[in-house]
Design brief:
Blueprint lengths: L2 E6 L8 H13 L4 E7 L9 E4 L2 E6 L9 H19 L6 E5 L5 H5 L5 E6 L12 H18 L4 E4 L2 H10 L5 E3 L6 H8 L10 E5 L9 H9 L4 E5 L5 H10 L5 E5 L3 H9 L3 E5 L11 H8 L3 E4 L2 H8 L4 E4 L4 H12 L7 H10 L2 H18 L1
Parallel strand pairs: 1-2, 1-5, 2-4, 5-6, 6-7, 7-8, 9-10, 9-12, 10-11, 12-13, 13-14
Antiparallel strand pairs: 3-4
Amino acid sequence: MKTINFLTGNFLPENCAGTNRILALVKELEKKYKINVVCISEKGKKPNDFEFSENIKVYYIHQKEYDGEKFFTRAINELIYAVRLAYKSKNYPCDIVIATSPQMFIIPASAFLPGKKIIDIRDLVWEYIDPRSAYTKLVKWFITQLMKRTISQYDYVTVTNNHEYEWVEKNISGVPIEKITNGIEIKNFMELNRLEPETVEPFTLTYIGNVGIAQNINVLVDLAKRMPDIQINIIGEGSKYHELKRYAHKNNIKNITFFGKVKREEIIKFYKKTSVLFAQLDEKFKAAMPSKLYEYASTGLPIIYAGLGEARNFVKQLENCTTINPGDVKALEVAVKKYREEPIKISETNKQFVYEHFIREKQSRKMVDIVDKLLQES
């Protein structure tokens, strides 16, 4: 049985969308191959190496705590750990390497490893650098050129959405591209598909996901002030969580509740007691597609999405959903009032759309086909 080295910044026990994608991929790949998952731990965590299954072994690089809010601090640390990741992978002989972003420096760090290589691009992070000064403009240009040159060193490129596909197609020549979308595991889909929402009083808007810079969900606190007769639930944590909670407390806003991280079975209970689901990404992140939207659509519940680009295009394909510009509290208020005046509708069409196109296990089989093809050529 041949061996794959899978290089990633996300793996268990970390619980995030990146981990879920990697799990789906390695579980499909292990049916035919042995896999060494070489990964970076969560910041400040020191998990031990372990055997995930008979064909999957996991090896960690322990990542120290650092301030991820500051771009250059984060970039320097990500570069250091990406280089260490690639260097450590050399300890484990393999027949093919799969490296996956969105930690962007994993791309150049792994590009010159020997043998066949696949790069799985999950975000074009360098596009988010704001070129407002000559210095940041130069930094963005340099990193973009670095990415272009090193992506071309891979034997295959996989991406998660159309925007990423178009960028690679435009900027990288001679390397095959395949879209392997993000999505939802079949087990989780079936659980949400069977969901039976309860009668909700008062009208309840729920946000589930990361509470960070990209999400910029201060707009929900502003909405709570404008609509004191609704309930807003925020489930999840992130770099802006405590700041947002303090802001709500300072303004004496009583109809917004911060639950932090909760277990999966508890999240299901929140879905059952929700009138409308909300998601948002700042306009700078128009190339990103939050995996949470696949989960939202699997419930059939109404969705309000505040954002542009890939995620907006996805939501527009759904029924019983509304798109607005990010940070627009007036537009959000109008959308909420519209749903509040109607009985809650559950969309079976949205559920079917997710099932047909965004089940992780189905998408992950594409990676198996790519690995098969490359190994047959070698």
